[in-house]
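WARN retry 2 of 3 for item q-0093 after timeout on previous attempt; input resubmitted unchanged.
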Amino acid sequence: MLKETRRDFLSKHAHKYGIVRHKIFIFKVKFKNQTVPTMATVMIVDDAAFMRAVLKKIVLQCGHEVVAEAVNGDEAIEKYQQCKPDIVLLDIVMPAGSKAKDGIEALKKIVAMDPSAKVIMCSSMGQQALVAEALKSGAKDFIVKPFQPQKVMEVLNKWG
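OK item q-0093 returned
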């Protein structure tokens, strides 16, 4: 039997838990004047399939939804326009494409399209200069490889 998703659970049990549906697939749960965070949609961009899989697992464990994956900056720009995710996890160092030579250039183009975009950069240790440039270019935060699940969860919950 497939594991029940958070969305399915909320749909089935909305009346029991006082859940109010606000937008398509976005729920808020109210318990004595407290609001539980809603599920964010996330796009993961990394040229390494293994890194995408690691991030996807962490994102899903946080209760968020992965709506798109991309392997380079060009694909990230296209998929961002199509999906409009709440959060983008974007690798800094990726193969060059025709629209973006790396993650920072893809970041600049995404932010130019949507200034409210929440882009979280993923970097390896020793890339402080690139991280600083990304933050100046509009990135909201960054996480360091190898990923520590707790840190990724903190950043997702902060911006999601």
